[in-house]
Every structure is written in structure tokens, then in C-alpha cells.
Design a protein that fits this description.
Layout lengths: L1 H34 L9 E5 L7 E2 L12 E4 L4 H7 L2 E2 L2 H7 L2 E4 L1 E3 L3 E11 L4 E4 L5 E6 L7 E2 L4 E6 L1 H19 L5 H20 L4 H10 L5 E5 L4 E6 L6 E2 L6 E4 L3 E9 L11 E6 L2 E13 L9 E9 L10 E8 L5 E5 L3 E3 L4 E8 L2 E6 L1 E5 L3 E6 L6 E5 L1 H7 L2 H5 L18 E11 L4 E6 L10 E7 L13 E10 L2 E8 L1
């Protein structure tokens, strides 16, 4: 009996020791956990902000009049933090939802297309006029219609001139006298020979055909008529000769134009003239052939400006195979202009222009965006030169700029760029401009309002009447015709002004 009692006591002691050890381990667990790193703390929500960037906050979750959830602002994302660091902070998830896209600021040659209207004109160097240098009559026409194509050397018309016949006879008599005085003295022969040469020179000065003169010298027989031939191959663009008509010296009878090459004279606006230079490539489209793009180059920029249209003519030379281009046709011209050297440039969508300053958002990584004031220069197709504010290789935001503006308190960060930045307010405010005025008209379907407002000092605008869009349909209830209101607005896109707040 005593042995059983001792065995039971030993088992009890063993169980008690095991239980004490187990409870001791449980009691020791908090001390071990306190020594290990603490788990990630859940971020604290400071308040909820309007999703459209309106100056409206809520301490609890809510929806705006359009049914959109208010955006939570966490600790560390408020305006004070942004202003202190000079950066805009947005969570990575929100950056992805906003569709933020960035591109590198890089060196590039800015291309700029200058568009102008023009007309097809004949090459002035290939226009030839046939006008006899003596008086006479049109005896016969070989080409009797305007627009007829002619080949080089093709007969155009024949003329009869009493003056020409008399000059030929004088030469023939002088030649006969020279032959008759072959046995006379040298002085007499020289005089007669000089008379014949003078008569022949007179005929040459009248631009008689070489074959006509050769026949006269050979045979010594004057011809009654003289045939005029086309000096070039081309088109008869003007014909004034009529069979039997009398003409005077220098009177134009035919005009023949070689249209194998033509000019396109484009009227370039005065403000675009500085970027157009000789040698620039030009694409020409003719209304008659919309599927054909003709390539040429600027060969001359005229030195005069047309005061009526404030344009300067620019000449482009084009080949004209097949004669498709007709003088007088209208043309659409696109000139490639711009700087020939590479400059630091960013996409034009990266620049937020408030009217008083130009801002670029530089991506610093991990949802951080630094607003920089930049100085811009020349503009090209979809790119703008940056003179100051951004370095080569930095990434700039080219898409969702306005959404970043609405998602964050950009105004607080941008205020640090000024010479005298004011302290950022505790609650976020919309980035925009203020104006007071009278509502002229409201288009609820289009979501627009016409406002006759006073001066806007932040944009240096005078008083004017203009159309605004509204950030949401709920604002239209406060914008009734003839109502006097105070509004705050932002520029969502180029020339697109959006009212974000209305007060009476």
C-alpha cells in the first residue's frame, strides 16, 4: 500500500513539472514577441477627399453626387508633408489606377510642319515668247489653237514683211556687186564687201532662222515669207496671231511654255516664316489627285510680304511627268521646318501651363512626383524644347497630369517653387483660379456654362464672357441663368477650363 502511494506521488510530481514548464513557456511568449520586430502598422486615414479634386473633405467615407467614392488620404500623404518635401506623393496602386505614363527628357531634333495653300504656276524660266522684230503680216498659221502641244523646231506660223524682203534684196545686190568688182581696186572691193556684211548682219539681228540665212547666202535669192518655229517643246499657252493680221515690231504672237517642271507657290503665314528656309522638304497634295503625295523642296522664299493676307510666297519646284500638274491648280503644302540641331525636349503633354507658369512633373519613383517650373522654347510636332528646369534623362509625366493634380494636393507642392511660398493649409484645396461673375447660359446636356466674369489676376485675364465645363452635374444646380456666383476653376486640358467650386 505504501509503495502504491509513493508511485502515485511520483507521477503527480512529474505531471506538475510538465504543466509548470508548459505554462511557463506560454507565459514567456509575450516577452519573446516584444523582442522581435513589430508587424507593419496599418496606415491611419486622416480624412476622405472629393475624387474630382473639389475643396470638399469628409471625416467618414461617403460618395459624391456622381456616385464616386471619396478618396482616403493617409497619414504622410497630406498637403503639409507634400509641401515640406516639395513633392507629390501618391500610392503605387493609385498611380496604376490613374494610368500615369512617363517618358524621358531627351535630345532630339524638333520637327515642325508648316501648312499652307498654294497654286501651280509655270516655271518662268521655261516660258518663251515669239515676237518678230520687224513689221509684217501673218501669212499662214501652222498652229492655230491655244493649248496645242508642240515639239522643238515645229513650224508655228509664216509672215510676210516688205521690210524683210527689201533687206534681203539689199544683201543680194551687195553680193552681186562684190562679185562684179572682183577686178576692181582693193578699196572698192572692201567697201562693197562691207555693204554686203552689213545687210546680212541686219537680217541676223532680226532673228531670222539660220537655214533661211544659209539659203540666202548660198543662192542670193530673197524669200517672200519667213517661217517661225517653236524654240522649245511644250504647250501653246497663249496665241494672239490671226491669219492675215498685221503686227508691229516686238508684238507677241505666240507663247510656248515647257511644263515638264512647274512651280508651286505657297502662301506662308507671317508667324510661320521664321521656321521656313530654302532647301526644306515639302509635301504637296493636289485636290485633283488626292491619292498622290508629291515631294519637292523649297527653292526660294520671296523677299516681300503681301499686306492684304499677311503671307509671304514660298516657291517649290516639282517635276511634272505626264503633265498632270496644270497651271492654276490649287495645292495643299506641308513644309518641314524647325531647328536643325538637337535640343532637350519633352512631349508637349508633359507641360502644365497655368497661364503664369509652366510646370512639369518629374517622376522620382515609388509614387513620388516633383513639380518643376520650366522655361520652354521652340515647339515641334508633339514636342517642346525645355531651356531650364529639367535635365536630360529625367522622367516626366506625359499622361494623367490632371488626374495627379486632382488626386494630390499639387498646389501645396508647387507653392514651394515661388519666391515667397505661403504655409500650406491643413485641408487640401483645389489647384485653380477664382473668378466672380454672372451666369449667362447653362447647357445641362453638354455640362457647360457660359459665364460673364470679371478679371482673373492669377491668369492676367481681363473681364470677358466665356464657356466653362463643370466637374460634375451637381454643380449645375448652383449655376442658373442670371445668378451671380463666385467660382473656382482649373485647366484640365489645353484651353479646357473646368469649374470645380461654386459659391453664391
Amino acid at each position: 500500500m505504501k509503495a502504491n502511494t509513493l508511485l502515485a506521488a511520483a507521477v503527480a510530481a512529474t505531471i506538475a513539472a510538465g504543466a509548470g514548464y508548459w505554462f511557463g513557456q506560454r507565459g514567456h511568449t509575450p516577452q519573446t514577441a516584444s523582442a522581435a520586430p513589430e508587424p507593419t502598422k496599418q496606415r491611419k486615414v486622416l480624412y476622405y477627399r472629393n475624387p474630382m479634386g473639389l475643396p470638399d473633405t469628409s471625416p467618414v467615407p461617403k460618395k459624391d453626387p456622381m456616385g464616386m467614392d471619396y478618396v482616403p488620404v493617409y497619414e504622410g500623404e497630406d498637403s503639409a508633408a507634400a509641401s515640406a518635401s516639395g513633392q507629390v506623393r501618391i500610392s503605387t496602386e493609385k498611380v496604376q489606377k490613374l494610368g500615369v505614363r512617363t517618358e524621358l527628357a531627351s535630345m532630339r531634333t524638333l520637327g515642325q510642319a508648316v501648312r499652307a495653300v498654294g497654286r501651280v504656276e509655270p516655271d518662268e524660266r521655261h516660258v518663251h515668247v515669239i515676237s518678230p522684230k520687224f513689221e509684217g503680216y501673218v501669212e499662214r498659221l501652222h498652229v492655230n489653237v491655244t493649248g496645242q502641244p508642240v515639239a522643238r523646231g515645229q513650224p508655228l506660223f509664216e509672215v510676210y514683211s516688205p521690210e524683210l524682203v527689201a533687206a534681203q534684196r539689199e544683201y543680194a545686190i551687195a553680193m552681186q556687186g562684190t562679185q562684179a568688182m572682183a577686178g576692181a581696186g582693193a578699196e572698192a572691193q572692201a567697201g562693197m564687201k562691207q555693204l554686203a556684211e552689213s545687210a546680212l548682219a541686219r537680217l541676223r539681228n532680226w532673228d531670222l532662222p539660220p537655214e533661211h540665212l544659209a539659203a540666202l547666202v548660198k543662192n542670193g535669192e530673197p524669200r517672200r515669207t519667213v517661217t517661225f518655229r517653236s524654240p522649245v517643246g511644250g504647250i501653246v499657252t497663249e496665241k494672239k496671231a490671226v491669219q492675215g493680221m498685221r503686227f508691229m515690231p516686238g508684238e507677241m504672237l505666240y507663247q510656248v511654255t515647257d511644263l515638264s517642271a512647274v512651280w508651286v507657290v505657297a502662301e506662308v503665314n507671317e508667324q510661320d516664316l521664321g521656321s521656313v528656309r530654302s532647301g526644306a522638304a515639302a509635301a504637296v497634295r493636289i485636290n485633283a489627285y488626292p491619292d498622290k503625295a508629291l515631294q519637292g523642296r523649297v527653292t526660294y522664299v520671296y523677299p516681300t510680304l503681301k499686306a492684304e493676307t499677311r503671307t509671304v510666297p514660298v516657291r517649290i519646284e516639282l517635276p511634272n511627268p505626264g503633265g498632270l500638274l496644270k497651271p492654276g491648280m490649287f495645292a495643299q503644302v506641308e513644309l518641314q521646318a524647325g531647328a536643325r540641331t538637337q535640343v532637350l525636349a519633352v512631349p508637349d503633354s508633359a507641360v502644365i501651363d497655368s497661364g503664369t507658369r509652366r510646370i512639369v512633373l518629374v517622376d522620382k519613383g515609388e509614387g513620388r512626383f516633383e513639380p518643376r517650373e520650366v522655361k520652354t522654347g521652340a515647339r515641334g510636332d508633339n514636342f517642346v524644347q525645355v531651356l531650364e528646369g529639367v535635365k536630360e534623362g529625367e522622367r516626366v509625366v506625359v499622361a494623367a497630369n490632371f488626374l495627379i493634380d486632382a488626386e494630390s494636393n499639387l498646389k501645396a507642392a508647387v507653392s514651394g517653387l515661388g519666391p515667397a511660398a505661403s504655409p500650406a493649409p491643413a485641408a487640401p484645396t483645389a489647384v485653380g483660379h477664382k473668378a466672380s461673375g454672372t451666369v449667362e447660359a447653362v447647357d445641362a446636356k453638354a455640362g457647360t456654362v457660359t459665364l460673364n466674369h470679371g478679371p482673373v489676376p492669377t491668369l492676367k485675364w481681363p473681364a470677358m464672357t466665356m464657356e466653362f465645363k463643370v466637374a460634375n452635374s451637381g454643380l449645375l444646380a448652383h449655376l442658373q441663368p442670371k445668378a451671380k456666383v463666385n467660382v473656382e476653376f482649373v485647366e484640365r486640358g489645353a484651353g479646357e477650363w473646368v469649374i470645380t467650386s461654386v459659391q453664391h
